[in-house]
Amino acid sequence: MTSSDFVEVLVLGDGIIGLSCARASAARGLATCLVGRRRPGVASAAAAGFLAPTIDPTSGAALTFMVEGRERYRSFVDELRAATGHDIPFALDGILRVPGSEREAAALRASADAASPWLDPAEVIELEPALHAPYGARHHAADGMVDNQRLLRALEEAIALANIPRLNAEVQRIRMAGPLVSVAMDDGRALRCRYLVLAGGAWQPLVEGLPRHLPVLPLRGQMMSLVGSPVTRPVFGFGGYLIPRPADRQVMVGSTSEAVGFALGTTDAALTRFRDVAARLVPSLARADEVRTWSGFRPMTYDGLPIIGPDPDNPAVLYACGHSRNGILLAPITGDAIAALAAGAPSPHDLSPFSIARFPASAAPIS
Asked: What does the alpha-carbon distance between residue 292 and residue 308 come to, in Å, rounded to a whole number?
């Protein structure tokens, strides 16, 4: 590419949201370019891989979108397998929520429904023999998990195989140039585009010249992985969770949610708590060897919902950021929605709950 290049769609951010948006836009025949430099702590690689819209659910159109996002994975992993040959570990066979007391069990029983039924202890053991659930568990039967590490690698390969240009750079500033958007990068290059997709995760607010204040903050999540895979599906309980990685013969334990800026790292207190959570849920894990520990940054909005769709005053700017705890869940469906908008078509999904207009526009307009 030269310094004067023009593309129809320029995607800022090379995490799972940015990769999904770039892939979907290119699939519609739009000249697309992806810009980003992988940062330590990016949420896509650090996440657990939950596909769990019914765990602490939202409501209305936002919940509908999240459920549709979960269901989109069935075809999404098939598409990536066809494009790359990679099988991505993926399952929608439920998530268990285990109470730690009779009082908590009563509350979970009262909220159970046909989609998330209550299981007595014997039924839990039938599903997960290693699990300690003396009060029973609520079974979020349609939710599940995906191996986000393998998903990320497959998406990156799909981008390469589709010959989508990818620039290893950081965007410093954006500005309007008539109906187009001009983007200046830290390596001295400048690009113009018809649509600019903001998919930079927790770092997106650091770009100069945004149309308005972007209410996205980094929240650090710490995690640990242990040897062994004694459960076959994700389990919540005792203030934490387990999520199996059978392909690696490991189980992941998490997580924290800390407002510490961009300070990476783990703490002894968190890792000790993870050990306690694991042993309470699966007693055999009390003796499991540690594989590794890590942390990453969730891009959290003030209300926990993502920002998806056009800027009200600058429709050439498309937001695809602030996915908070649901970046893995919503990556494919976000890519579909953004690609439709960039192609001049309506979004196939209701994006009204995710408009940036729900937040005060306290930043100066793009100059």
From this structure: 34
User: What are the beta bridge partners of residue 6?
Assistant: 192
DSSP symbol at 132:
-
Give residue-wise pLDDT tens across range 228-267: 999 999 999 999 999 999 999 999 999 999 999 999 999 9
What do you get for the CA distance between the two ends of the chain, in Å? 25
| Residue 41 vs residues 3, 157, 218, 220, 223: alpha-carbon distances, Å | 30, 21, 10, 9, 12
| Residue 127 to residue 318: CA distance in whole angstroms | 43
For the beta carbon of residue 283, count every other beta carbon within 10 angstroms: 13
Asked whether the predicted pLDDT for residue 300 surpasses 60, the reply is yes
Distance CA 327, CA 298 (A): 8
255 Cβ neighbours under 8 A, 6+ residues apart: 48, 221, 222, 223, 240, 241
Q: How many CA atoms lie within 13 A of 101 on its CB side?
A: 4
Identify the three-state secondary structure at position 140: strand
pLDDT tens string 349-361: 999 999 999 998 7
pLDDT for residue 4 = 54
Q: Which of 232, 243, 233, 325 is nearest to 278 (CA)?
A: 243
Residues 130 and 231: beta-carbon distance below 8 Å: yes
H helix runs in 146-211, sequence order: 148-161
For residue 367, pLDDT beyond 90: no
Spell out the domains of the chain, with CATH numbers in brackets.
6-50+150-215+303-358 (3.50.50.60), 92-143+218-301 (3.30.9.10)
Per-position DSSP letters for 302-317, written without gaps between them? TTS--EEEE-SS-TTE
100-117 pLDDT, tens digit each: 999 999 999 999 898 899
